[in-house]
Amino acid sequence: MPTNPALETAWRNLNRWSTILWLLCFGCFPGMFLLTYLLNDVLLQEASFFVVALAWVGAFAWAGSRMASFACPRCNRAFFENWYFFKPLRRNCAHCSLTRWAKEMPPPAATGS
Ligand SMILES: [Zn+2]
After folding, report:
1. I need a labelling partner for 61 at 20 to 30 A (CA). Which of 1, 16, 22, 100 fits?
2. How far does the centroid of ligand 1 lie from the alpha carbon of residue 76, in Å?
3. Angle (deg, nearest 10), helices 5-26 and 28-37
4. Contact present, 98 and 72 (Cβ < 8 Å)
């Protein structure tokens, strides 16, 4: 079965953002403590935990918005519909139902005439 390079790239991008998002999510507490420690004790910066937490939330929101705005490779509309209906584990496009990780691009489902 031939693979579509555009699709491969799109899924790889999506996978990268979701990995970053999960890492930020699960690494939240150890990551923030480590970063605070590094900044304060190693680099001797007067960074408060609050600033680090804020930066963390910012990074999380950034990665989340990048993922939420992922455009479907087939219909070019938001794969996850929008921020409110953002489901990172969604398996198909909110608009054309293109299955995530699809190896080739099936024609859009017929929606009547
Ligand atoms: Zn789509």
Report:
1. 100
2. 6
3. 70
4. yes
d(CA 73, CA 28): 31
pLDDT over 70, % of the chain: 85
Cα–Cα distance for residue pair 37/62, rounded to 1 Å: 23
Residue showing tokens 């989340």? 64
Are the beta carbons of 26 and 60 closer than 8 angstroms? no
Q: For residue 40, count other CB atoms closer than 10 A to its CB.
A: 15
Tell how far the Cα of 30 is from the centroid of ligand 1, in angstroms: 37
Express each pLDDT in 41-74 by its tens digit: 887 777 777 888 888 889 988 888 888 888 999 9
